[in-house]
Amino acid sequence: MLNADDLVVLLSFASAFLFASTITFAVLWVRARERFLKQRAEPMLESPPDRIEHLVNAVETMAVEVERISEAQRFTTQVLTKRLGEPVEPRRVPERVITPH
User: Could you read off the pLDDT of 53-100 as tens digits, one per residue?
Assistant: First the structure.
């Protein structure tokens, strides 16, 4: 049979074991969470150069397309001018007006 002193010692050891296991699990959980957040942040750190490269490629593609459109407009103007037989005066661009806001 257990007496009061033995019961106090048993409860002390049980409390110490539960406290130590709780602290151990808490530390392991925090480390696992840090690893998870670090892994999730790594692609975000690596992706901006890829995104910038993708953006540069997109801008270059748009520049080529705009150049093609302008060439097509020049060609169309040239064909229409030859078809009409009349010289077409270039459009005058109005001066820029600065309006107060």
Answer: 888 999 999 999 999 999 999 898 888 888 776 655 667 766 776 777
Give residues with Cβ within 8 angstroms of 81, minimum separation 6: 87, 88
* DSSP codes of every residue in 44-99: HHHHHHHHHHHHHHHHHHHHHHHHHHHHHHHHHHHHHHHHH-SPPPPPPPPPP-PP
Vertex 14 angle, CA 12 and 18, to 5°: 115
Residue pair 2/10 in contact (Cβ under 8 Å)? The answer is yes
- Tell me the whole-structure pTM to 2 decimals: 0.39
Report the alpha-carbon distance of residue 58 to residue 97 in Å, rounded: 33
Convert the pLDDT of each residue in 8-38 to its tens digit: 888 999 999 999 999 999 999 999 999 998 8
